[in-house]
Amino acid sequence: MTTTLAVLGATGQQGGATARALLAADPAGPADLTVRALVRDPASGAARALADAGAELGRADLTDQESLRAAFAGVDGVFAMTTSFTPRGTDGETADGIRIADAALAAGVPHLVYSPVGGAERHTGIPHFESKRRVEEHIEGLDLPATFVRPVFFMENLSPSSEDGTTVLRLPLPAGVPVQMVAVEDIGRVAAAALRDPSRVPEGAIEIGGDEVTGEQAAEILGGRYEALPVTVLDDPDLRAMFTWFADARPAYRADFARTRELDPQVLDLAAWAATRPATGPST
Predict the structure, then answer these.
(1) Which residues are registered as beta bridge partners of 76?
(2) I need a surface site. Which of 26, 42, 113, 266 has the fewest CB within 10 A?
(3) SS3 at position 83
(4) What PANTHER family does the annotation carry (predicted)?
């Protein structure tokens, strides 16, 4: 008997991490596993790399519900995430998420794993948190078994620069304010665990994280110094709202670190993640 699990956005960050985690699953498990990697362009280099690793490629268009329904045909589970950082903004993100959920229901998908964001359910007022929460609420209103894997701040969003041989990390975050973080690969491993066995997240939702550090601690781990910037340096009101929330809400994120490690024993703290990253390049 073969289990088929579909991964939307399989050449993106979270989708790619989820597909890789599924493809790396123990082949001696209880059932053969087919990973259906759903992408916009099956001929792309990233898509071909997934095929070479054993994935079955499929095409899916988030703006076309019939395309999604066809892509979900015959699968035992779907991983999906959405983003507001496109020209269609937060309204487009919510529309995409609703379309994904409705297509999964129409295709008879037994289980959907959706990755929104840590704190989505806590009415933060942050636009790209609220757009994801609207997707969650739509899913909750359907007869569609689902798990929400809510990641905190991505470690990959840390972008130190090298200036005169010194690593400098700048964030619009006051000194002394801790922020919970997670590596994208760990999002993929937790999502894969939930896809393979939904009973491992019996509550139906989990906020996941790998570490909690201040800006100064992050800079020290990355081998440099920290400079706190005022939130006004951010032109995007969405990001301004998020970093204001980081500073004002104590705690902002509320990851369950112990449960994250149960689902993903390889979960990385910031130091372990940093050890896997290339050296900081010159400032541009």
Answers:
(1) none
(2) 26
(3) coil
(4) NITROGEN METABOLITE REPRESSION PROTEIN NMRA FAMILY MEMBER (PTHR42748), NMRA LIKE REDOX SENSOR 1-RELATED (PTHR42748:SF7)
CATH superfamily label, 2-275: NAD(P)-binding Rossmann-like Domain (3.40.50.720)
Beta strands in the chain (DSSP E): 2-8, 32-39, 56-59, 77-81, 112-115, 146-151, 153-154, 161-163, 166-171, 179-182, 205-208, 211-213, 224-228
Say what the pLDDT of residue 256 is.
98
Amino acid at 121: E
Beta sheet of 166-171, edge-to-edge order: 161-163, 166-171, 224-228
pLDDT digits (tens, 9 = 90+) for 134-156: 999 999 999 999 999 999 999 99
Q: Per this entry, what is the length of the chain?
A: 284
**φ and ψ of 234, to 5 deg:** -85, 120
Q: What's the whole-model pTM score?
A: 0.94
- What is the token pair recorded at 262? 């149960």
Does 95 score more than 90 pLDDT?
yes
Distance CA 2, CA 19 (A): 17
Cβ atoms within 10 Å, residue 209 = 24
